[in-house]
Amino acid sequence: MTRMAILLNVNGEEFPLDVEPHRTLLEVLREDLSLKGTKANCQEGECGACTVMVDGLAVNACLYLAVRADRKRIVTIEGLVGKDGLHPLQEAFVRHGGVQCGYCTPGFIVSAAALLQANPHPSEDELAQALVGNICRCTGYVAIRQAVRSVAGSQEAGS
Predict the structure, then answer these.
(1) What domain range includes position 120?
(2) Which residues are CB-contacts of 32 (< 8 A; sequence separation ≥ 6)?
(3) pTM, whole model, 2 decimals?
(4) Which terminus of the chain, N or C, has fewer Cβ atoms within 10 Å?
């Protein structure tokens, strides 16, 4: 099978890889780079568990071909953790009870981080729209929205 040379910038680190053109970013992140925080679930772009940022935009890694990510800046849930500890959104999800089983949490947090980087003061409608692609079966969404609102507009939102 034909392979393509790509250079992925994941969480600030560069990875030169040879990949088959049909492989998804999700497969490469989990299987080749051992970044397991990005979850594999529906494989159809319906649940948002695999959400990562590509050049600041939230995307479903299960639908995004790895070759499309060549030389783009990718941020996974692991990349949101800073030198000083958890990202403010990660802390807020814990503080507000936005995590239960935790499987959907990385996708929600990455989607929220992309929103707050682009718009530190989102309206309720903008918040709902940013999270519409993420599904949770445990929390009922109230605590998730409270967690994101608690960080929205703070100095740390973009860290």
Answers:
(1) 80-151
(2) 15, 17, 19
(3) 0.93
(4) N
Q: Across-strand partners of 9? A: 14, 73
Gap between the Cα atoms of 23 and 58, Å rounded: 19
Domain match, 69 and 88 both? no
Q: How many domains does the chain have?
A: 2
Length of the chain: 159
Same domain as 15, residue 59: yes
- Confidence band, pLDDT 50/70/90 cuts, at residue 145: very high
Does residue 156 belong to any structural domain of this protein? no
Judged against a pLDDT cut of 60, whether residue 29 lies above it is answered with yes
User: Euclidean distance between the first and final Cα of the chain, in Å?
Assistant: 41
Residue 69's domain is classified under what CATH number?
A: 3.10.20.30
pLDDT grade for 9, boundaries at 50, 70 and 90: very high
- Count CB-CB contacts under 10 A for residue 105: 26
